[in-house]
């Protein structure tokens, strides 16, 4: 028999990744306090978390979870449609719809599952799915899973998207974009995309994983900030594991969409409902994300502090006004070396390398949080001052970014 061995092939793929300096390494955190984590016995200032509002350890969120666990137990014990749907889930869905100004909302156990579920439900093999090149991988996977034809347009380029649509004017079409791009921190041209969708009779889906809690009045996200309602952007997906500090996700929009998902979204139907205590924790986090304006202002002050400081150091950042502030390095090994230097100096800032980002665009992905003190950001900038010289040596041409 000459049948190729699948596991041997996998081992070869890992070896090749190691040879290219792209091996992933799991880091285990053994303690956490505020914006600090302990890794390998060292206390590091954490600039890697998506807990933008510092809600993951908030006393009210912890308390809500503990209280709900005492009331409901831990597991939901079944899928939503088969007895797993508790009052906590139901209330949360109402509150999410209300917060985002949508008619209805449906919970999913993760953002990844939500995007797969939406695409598989809404698309069909005859359709096209038009996506920004830098969309999160689960939007791309969702399109593949649906069988629709995936067409990708240049990052933020609405004309490029228009050309993709005009090339297939007779086919049903979905435009999908991140609201805030997860590895770049920049924001999609939301209004232009919504106009394009209307002109082209296409549906529009925005993944606001990094906008919810951060942008817009009451932290309701990038669509609130852009003033786009559910007629203009019918499909809103957002995650609850980033600024809300818990986990899971929801899709919100018109009744027909959400009812359709309840009927047909396989990644929602054929999976155990999230523990009700998580839903309770998310409800507490939602209230804080919506009402604690001072907390959000603190986050944006840290972002401004970081950008001003980085500019003074002569570092060139991507045009981002969100908590995601990547420092482009280019070469993967150099990005890794810089991350290691920062770690030696007491900072956890992971290097992001291909295939998570496009070839030759490895970076340090710095994320800011309301749980950072002004002094944390100042200390990071000090440490970065020490490596800027090297950055310039590594990348003399990077200033054009
Ligand atoms: C994190 C992320 C997701 C996935 O959400 P999870 O709840 O972590 O599975 C989806 N889209 C974007 C843009 C993300 O950044």
CATH superfamily of the largest domain: Type I PLP-dependent aspartate aminotransferase-like (Major domain)
* Strand segment tally: 14
- Low-pLDDT segments, ≥5 res: 395-401
Give, in spatial order, the strands making up the sheet with the most strands: 4-10-9-8-7-5-6
Tell me the count of domains: 2
CATH topology of the largest domain: Aspartate Aminotransferase, domain 2
Structural Rg: 22 Å
Overall body shape: globular
* Ligands and ions found: pyridoxal-5'-phosphate
Strand residues, percent: 15-25%
Distance between the termini: 54 Å
Main beta sheet: strand number and arrangement? 7 strands, mixed
Task: Give your account of this protein's structure.
The chain folds into two domains: 23-53 and 293-391, Aspartate Aminotransferase, domain 1; 59-291, Aspartate Aminotransferase, domain 2. The strands form three sheets. A seven-stranded mixed sheet has the order 4-10-9-8-7-5-6, with helices on both faces. It has a four-stranded mixed sheet with strand order 1-2-3-12. β7 (173-178), α7 (190-199) and β8 (203-207) form a beta-alpha-beta unit. The radius of gyration is 22 Å and the shape is globular. It contains 14 helices and 14 strands. The chain starts with 5 loop residues before the first helix and ends in a 7-residue tail after the last helix. With 401 residues, the chain is an alpha/beta fold. Bound molecules: pyridoxal-5'-phosphate.
């Amino acid at each position: 028999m000459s049948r190729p061995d699948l596991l041997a092939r996998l081992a070869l793929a890992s070896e090749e990744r190691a040879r290219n300096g792209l091996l992933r390494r799991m880091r285990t955190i053994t303690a956490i306090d505020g914006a600090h984590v302990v890794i390998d016995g060292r206390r590091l200032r954490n600039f890697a978390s998506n807990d933008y509002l510092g809600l993951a350890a908030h006393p009210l969120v912890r308390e809500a979870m503990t209280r709900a666990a005492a009331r409901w137990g831990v597991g939901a014990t079944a899928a939503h449609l088969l007895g797993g749907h508790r009052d906590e889930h139901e209330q949360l869905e109402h509150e999410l719809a209300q917060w985002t100004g949508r008619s209805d909302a449906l919970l999913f156990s993760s953002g990844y599952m939500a995007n797969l579920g939406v695409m598989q439900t809404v698309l069909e093999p005859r359709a096209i799915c038009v996506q920004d090149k830098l969309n999160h991988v689960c939007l791309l996977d969702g399109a593949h899973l649906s069988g629709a034809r995936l067409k990708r347009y240049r990052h933020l380029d609405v004309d490029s998207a228009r050309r993709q649509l005009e090339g297939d004017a007779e086919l049903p079409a979905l435009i999908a974009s991140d609201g805030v791009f997860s590895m770049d921190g920049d924001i999609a041209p939301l209004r232009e995309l919504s106009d394009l969708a209307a002109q082209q009779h296409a549906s529009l889906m925005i993944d606001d994983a990094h906008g919810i809690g951060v942008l817009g009045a009451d932290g309701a996200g990038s669509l609130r900030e852009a003033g786009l309602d559910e007629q203009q952007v019918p499909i809103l997906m957002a995650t609850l594991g980033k600024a809300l500090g818990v986990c899971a996700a929801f899709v919100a929009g018109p009744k027909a969409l959400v009812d359709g998902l309840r009927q047909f979204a396989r990644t929602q139907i054929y999976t155990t409902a999230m523990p009700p205590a998580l839903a309770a924790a998310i409800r507490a986090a939602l209230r804080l994300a919506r009402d604690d304006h001072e907390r959000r202002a603190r986050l944006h002050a840290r972002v401004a502090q970081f950008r001003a400081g980085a500019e003074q150091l002569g570092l060139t950042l991507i045009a981002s006004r969100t908590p995601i502030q990547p420092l482009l390095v280019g070469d993967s090994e150099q990005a890794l070396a810089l991350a290691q230097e920062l770690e030696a100096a007491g900072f956890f800032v992971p290097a992001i390398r291909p295939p998570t980002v496009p070839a030759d665009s490895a970076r340090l992905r710095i994320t800011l949080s309301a749980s950072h003190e002004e002094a944390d950001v100042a200390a990071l900038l000090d440490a970065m001052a020490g490596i800027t010289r090297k950055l310039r040596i590594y990348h003399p041409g990077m200033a054009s970014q």
